[in-house]
Every structure is written in structure tokens, then in C-alpha cells.
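Sample A.
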Amino acid sequence: MIVVWQITERCNLACPFCLYDKRRVGNRREADAKTVLRFARLLGEFQQSRQERVLISWLGGEPLLWSPLFPLSHSLREEYDLAFSITTNGTSLPRELIQEQILASMTELTVSVDAFAEQHNAWRGWPNGWQNLRAAMQQLAQKAEHRGVNLKRRVNTVLMRDNLDTFADLCHELATWGIHEITFNQLGGRDRPEFYPSHRLQPNDVEHLIKMIPMLREELGQQGVQLRGDDTYLQRIEASSRDISIPVHDCFPGERFLFIDEQARVSPCSFTAASLGVSLNDLHTVNDIMNLPARFSAARQQQLPVPCRNCTSTRVFAKFGG
């Protein structure tokens, strides 16, 4: 079971394509630590009773800004042997203390890198950020390998027209950072609709990407790095570039994947939190978790959520395949 948990809407960077750009006005919600601890313990009991491994993946905003993160993760790892991962913009990674806490409590680390230094730093509003991130990732890799710590290290890139031509070269550079995997997302229009039209991938861009992937995957494999995203994933990206909808009537919701937002709603994915979300306050036993798939399926059968009529879930379309 993979549980992606969005714990904060706060962020300290200024990415023009992201909903959590620090320049955007409005309240930034955060998860309640007591609620997170209670339900995470329930997930620990679920793991023990079902003998089914649970990975909790912290997401933001910038999750490293949520102060309870490391104490809570370390405690739950010790108590229930839960596995944890985190997706971060990397601004905190150069700090020695943060590196030690990641090595002590995380199973997977994903950092966001979208381009080479000049472009990446400009997009993020982080002077010298790319250089600092590279050094920090290489340090983490050296520490993990020296200590025999099993920490999967991954880089994720948001692909758009602006960075597609340099993606292959960027991947080869990232392979020198001591990482294991590279994943990618297409630029989405839901978060920043004002940015999307002029930067989105067009059909000819995706055609170029599809031709590029097999050789790039082979070359990276020779460098010891896996490039994820199988043919199903590329087909979803191509359909999006052509504004073709792909409805999904049954994704087996809640069986192997859950999404929890900062408002303490659990749902089959981030797109269905508003329509299918169940409050964590209504879940008190392992059986309540086990009953979520039936609960989600019944709700979908009664009325298929709008996002399901054109599903863009990277989980459903095998972002981590390949």
C-alpha cells in the first residue's frame, strides 16, 4: 500500500507553474500533527495485521517545512516499521542535520530538478540552488553508500516545451548525482492555468519525446540509472497534448494506493479528494481502512467524478513503470 500524504501547502520557492508558488496570496493549510500521528499508527496496525507493506510518501508544498515531519517519521518507523519517502524541492538538503535525519528515517528521497542550472534557478527563484542541490545529493549518496543505508534516490522533472530539448542531456548529468531513478511529469494545467497554454507539450513535442525515450533509457541504464515511465504513460501524455480524454471507469480505488490531503481527507487520488474524500476522523479501525475500496467504488458507481472522465493520474497510467 502506498499512501501519498500532502502535509502542507507552504513552500519557500517561486515556481511559476506550481500552485504553491510562495508569491501567491492566500492561506496555506497544514496537516494537524495529532491527526497524522493517529492515522499513521492505524496504518501501522494495518501493515501488521495484513502483512502488507505500507509506504507513506510525504508531499507538499514543501514537506520539509512541516516541523513534526522527522520526529513523527522516526517514531513511527521505530514503532511499526513503516517505510517513508519524501518529495522535496531540495532547499534544505545542504544542511547536515537534514541529511542525517533523512538517512535515519526515509526509505526514498525524490528531488525536483527541471533544467540545467541557469534555467532551473530562474524558475525556482533560488540563486545557486541547482549547484547546492547537486552537491547535497552527491553528499547524501556518499553517506548512504558508506554506511550501507538503503535510501532510494530519485529525481523528478516537469516536462514542458521550455526544457524538452535539454531533457536527455539533463538526465545524463543527473546520473552523476548518485541517484537510482529519474521520473517525469508533463506540465499540467490545473495548478496554474495562466502559465499552461504557452508552455504545455504539443503533439510534435510528445512525438519527439516518444522517439527519444528508448535510447535514453538504454544509455541511462548503462550509467546505472533507471528512467521510469512505460508506453502506457507516454500514451497518456500524447493524449493530453491532443486534448483527448481518457475515461477510467474502474481504477480499483483504494486497493493499493491512497491520497491524503492537508484537510485530513483520504481519497483514491489527488484529483478526487473533493468528490470521494473520506474524513480521517471517520476511520478508527483496520477494518475501516480495508473497507475504503468498497466505499470508494460505491460512490463512483453512484456518480463518476468529473476527473475520472478524463483521468490524468500518474499512478493509473504507470509513471513508475518501464
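Sample B, a different protein:
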Amino acid sequence: MKFENSKMKIGVLAVFILIVSSLSLYYYANTGTTTQSGETYLFIKPAFAQSMSTTPTFLDDEAGISAYVNINRSIDLAVAKTVYRTLEKETADYIVGSVNVSLSADEDVHCFVHKEGWIVTYYGKGEPLSKIVEWNLWSQSTSKLTKNKLQVGLEKMTLVLIGVAVPSVSYYDFQYPNANKCMIIIKTLVGSGEDSFNVTIPTDIAVYEQSWSHYSQCLWSYGDGPAYAHSYFKVDGNTINTISGTTGVIDPVTNRGTLTDPLEKLKQGAASMVSVSSDYYYYYHYLYGVCVALVYQEP
């Protein structure tokens, strides 16, 4: 899978979560070409049948993208329940509840905890992979996404159960059991103008989901007068989403969705251009971001 930056501006970030391959990500700038290799992870289904006395088959029915860990010790479910905002399911062997994970919104992930040491955070079937992106965990100074919302949920639970944040995380997508990898690419823009990158998906890759996240945040107070901010997320010139706002201090806005229209989806075997833009005249006061997320099977 190949990625090319058509422009290089402030705040460019490519983040790989569970991603493929030894294939490379290429940036093209005025000074030439630099190459970054993507970090590679596999989707691995949790070994519940081998590790636990009761297999929670409801995860196969309900869960989509998931992150999990085994803390290698028994869990007091009464203690685990104190982390939940809402208890959703309770049995003698495991519990399921919701954990708040967003720094800017009232948003939860589901969290499954089994007494034999398994902890799984997940979004439900039908919820896009791009939902795991927490824009407030993107650092403008370091150009890095420090963690995703599934990780935040796991950390909240493990901090209470074992006193430390989870050291490592594994991933699986129960909605697409044949998928073995996924990829997330993020591009940000400070101020007005447009920034973009090209994506070429090889024809021998089976893509199960193409989802997206579009973000807008004001970085400056305009006082009492109105300010108008418009940001656009496009694929090959087709507008997928628009964020508009009025007021000097606009609350962060995140919209998400899935690319299903053949005219809007990223192409296979040819380059597709993904862009984020803004026409706001106070160009240095707004931060915009766009993410595309792919769930797929690589041979």
C-alpha cells in the first residue's frame, strides 16, 4: 500500500495502528522523497477457548474492533465494576460495562472483564474503525497520536486492577474475522488552505472497511465578534464531510463515517487523493484533521 503527500505543511502525521506489512509509506516533498516503514501488527483472535473456562461467545455476536490484554492473574469482578460508568452484563465468570475514554466528549467504549485475567475493550459491530481515534491525544508539537481510545479504556481498567497501565495491547476485529490487519492515516492542517495525500491500495488486498474521521478545533479566541470556520474532507475531489462553525471559541467537532459509495471509496490499483482544507481567513487559529482507516486482509 503506497501513500504520497502532495503537499507538506504544518502538522502532518501518519499513524499506523495494527498495520500491515513491510510495504512502505512514501512522502514526496519539494526536497525529494523520504521513506518511512509502517509498524506492523496482526489481528489475532483472543485465545478464550484455551484460556478460560467459559467462552464469551457474545463477543463474536456484538463486538467489532477490539483491543485486549491478559494480566495473567485472577480478577476480582467486584473491583472491576468500580471502573464502569454503566454495567451492561454480569455473570459469575465475566462482566461487561462502559468506560468513559474521551477527553472532550461524553463517549464510552465497552469493556469486557473475565475473572481469569482477560480484559477486552471494543466498539460494537457497525461502528467504524476510525472511532478509536482520539484527536485530543494528537500532539501538535510532536506530530504523534500517543494512544487510541481502546487503549485508554484498557489503561483505566488495568490501573485499578493491577496499579499500572497495560504494557502491551493486542487487537482483533470480531466483525471481520478474515481481516488480518488495519491501517490508520492522519493528516492535519493548521489554518487556511489545503493539504492532501495519495493512497494506492493493491488489487490483491481484500478491503472490508473504509472509514473516516474529520476534526476541527479553534485555537484562539476571537472575542465577542463572530468568526466563521469551514473545513472540508474530500476524496478525489468529492466532498465527504463539511464542518462549519460560528463563534470565536468553537468547541472541537469530530464527525465520523464509512465510505460505502463506489464513487467516494478509495480505489484499488490506482491512486486516490484524500484532502483536508479550510477557507477560514484567520488562517493560523484553527486546527483541522482528517483520518482514513482501512480494515483488510493481506495475502
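Observation for Sample B: Residues 8-40 have pLDDT under 50 and may be disordered.
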